[in-house]
Specification:
The protein is of the alpha+beta class and 120 residues long. The chain is built from 5 helices and 6 strands. It has a two-stranded antiparallel sheet. It binds iron/sulfur cluster (2 copies).
Length: 120
């Protein structure tokens, strides 16, 4: 069971690296229609009123790297210096699943959107 979890985490980490590489590549691309931002623009969402992503503010305020603001392909996580807290635009979530394993402090509680909500 432990080996399966390790393999799942390795695959997920590899996916996160792929996302980061794709982000860098899209920023370097001359073709603006191939950027992640362009693809996000054509994705349609039906957000629930209840967030499907939550974090622990006591953990996040101590986190130096704020990795969630880097690995999420949809830029769902943004750190507010004014409020010293995460702003979570869960409405834009692409449901890639990376955030449930990407946070080094396991601060993110992710559940899939209820049926009929999320990406449509
Ligand atoms: S969610 Fe995780 S990575 Fe993001 S600020 Fe909180 S502790 Fe840091
Ligand atoms: S599951 Fe959603 S919030 Fe989490 S990394 Fe993927 S797109 Fe971002």
């Amino acid at each position: 069971m432990g080996e399966i979890n390790k393999q799942a985490k390795d695959v997920a980490r590899s996916n996160i690296l792929s996302v980061e590489r794709a982000k860098e590549k899209s920023f370097l691309s001359q073709d603006s229609s191939s950027t992640i931002e362009a693809k996000l623009y054509i994705t349609r969402f039906c957000p629930d009123t209840e967030p499907h992503i939550k974090t622990n503010p006591d953990i996040c305020i101590m986190c130096k790297g704020k990795e969630c603001t880097k690995f999420c392909p949809a830029n769902v996580f943004n750190w507010s210096k004014t409020d010293e807290s995460l702003i979570i635009a869960y409405e834009n979530c692409m449901e890639c699943g990376a955030c449930s394993i990407g946070c080094p402090y396991e601060s993110i509680q992710y559940t899939h959107p209820k049926a009929g909500y999320g990406i449509i």
